[in-house]
Design brief:
homodimer; 9 strands; disordered N terminus
Chain lengths: 293, 293
């Protein structure tokens, strides 16, 4: 294998992935497929699950020993529930080699970036990232090497960012087929509250309304169409992961939730007041915006 | 073709379909494929669209003349926005042959059943129906003969139902592969408010929150994942159709909307009070119920 040392075709000696699920596993598959690193080490808590990820060619080797796992790594990719990311950074810092770049796939950025920046020494870089490629289908079993192809990957560097580190992480994501967006972490969290976090709360609330009804009307479970299935699909996502998202982005989520409730209340009052012409306009506007996506 | 006159293999001379869209077109395709009628007549407002439906083998012949279209029909299937159903019934009544069965595919049942029952003479039967097979993909171009296969079709006969007429409509749907549920119209409307109408309002409200944000943050349009796409897919449905659903089921929709807002407010207060353990339980319950579907 030709090993270009600089620029786009740079090849790393070792990339460590902490958390080999859908995102971590797909990242590993992509690194291996594109030969971005000579070795992909997978780190997790469950060795038998990790060994399955080895069989799936998501990682080359597996360990549950954090120290051994990150030893000598050029890049450490952390893909675990958001609140656990800074905890892991703290744990691994003493074992990282000089110049190591830590990056992550956390769904919220401002709070953890602030926390992690406090811990870093000069020799270790952190590039905060969020590939928009999650799904309710969790686990390395659902991973695929092209998961990030044409997906957006948002990078939210802090003020202390090392430009070379940022460039290297950008290059890796580009080689995985992702489209890069560099953005302020607070901006990211604000936008994602509307495009991801509030839709999730809506799906959860819909499931609870449904669950209450299904408890007294057994037929409800049968009278479900494609609309309900689509709208509530994300409610099957990891509770642990989403709890962390709401906890680390509570201010933006609460703001967006106020907006969402305002829209619901508007629709409610139009139905109450039998103003179906204006309701029709609201439905049409939503249809136009949705079709334009 | 062997023409069994009675029971399951009964074959009709003429079935008229008023409104040849996704549902009407799929119904026609199925009638033709299963040879349930010798002739399928399509009736609509736009002759060129109807002629396309002929080419797609959704109907045998097309007309925009209601009188000509329903003349001699054994069955008239009405698949138009809910509020237009009683209007059409009123229009066609003078032209129907004795013993004709009218049936429909309206998404709400109690209000229109009440309205239509008032108009009927002894010689004409109405069997209210709702095949749960709609989608945001409208038009006969999206129709397919197996759309109703394994889908539930709810029939909501009123007190004056003619049992033979009900049996005949049940047989037709069964031959289309649908699973039949016979149910009180008010029960239907109550259940569907939770499984269909409130999810639709949630999707519409999410699109409006998104549209407001996208107006000031252009990046929002790019930072959309599969979750948002799924949750808001139904917002692209026909505004006219949905306006009618909310108008004809306003009482149940408002009740369910109150429940939905209560759930949203509960989640909001848990985030405000940083009670993420209880939020986690709410997320887990939703996940369990969703996964069991």
């Amino acid at each position: 294998v030709v090993n270009f040392v600089l620029g786009f075709y740079m090849k790393f000696k070792k990339i460590a992935i902490i958390g080999v699920g859908l995102i971590g596993g797909s990242f590993g598959m992509c690194i291996k497929k594109k030969r971005i690193a000579s070795e992909v080490m997978g780190i997790g808590r469950n060795l038998s699950r990790l060994n399955k990820a080895v069989k799936l060619r998501a990682i080359d080797r597996a360990t549950i020993d954090m120290k051994e796992g990150v030893k000598g790594a050029d890049i450490v990719f952390i893909s675990v529930p958001v609140k656990t990311i800074p905890v892991i950074v703290k744990k691994i810092l003493p074992f990282l080699k000089k110049g190591c770049i830590i990056t992550d796939a956390g769904s919220t950025k401002a709070e953890i970036l602030k926390e992690i920046e406090k811990m870093l020494s000069k020799n270790i870089n952190f590039v905060a990232g969020h590939p928009i490629a999650g799904s309710e289908n969790q686990g390395a079993g659902n991973a695929r090497p092209d998961l990030f192809k044409n997906a957006f990957c948002v990078l939210t560097p802090g003020k202390r960012i090392n430009k070379s580190a940022l460039k290297q992480i950008i290059n890796i994501w580009k080689r995985c087929g992702a489209k890069i967006m560099v953005m302020d972490p607070k901006e990211h969290d604000r936008i994602l509250s509307a495009t991801s976090h509030i839709p999730h709360i809506a799906a959860i609330a819909l499931m609870h309304v449904f669950s209450d009804l299904a408890g007294i009307k057994k037929e409800a479970k049968l009278l479900i169409g494609g609309g309900f299935r689509d709208t509530t699909r994300i409610a099957a996502s990891s509770a642990e992961m989403w709890k962390d998202i709401f906890e680390t982005n509570s201010i933006e989520v609460l703001k967006a939730l106020t907006e969402f409730k305002r829209k619901i209340t508007k629709i409610e009052s139009l139905i109450k007041n039998k103003d179906f012409d204006r309701l029709n306009k609201i439905l049409k506007h939503a249809k136009e915006v949705r079709e334009a996506l």
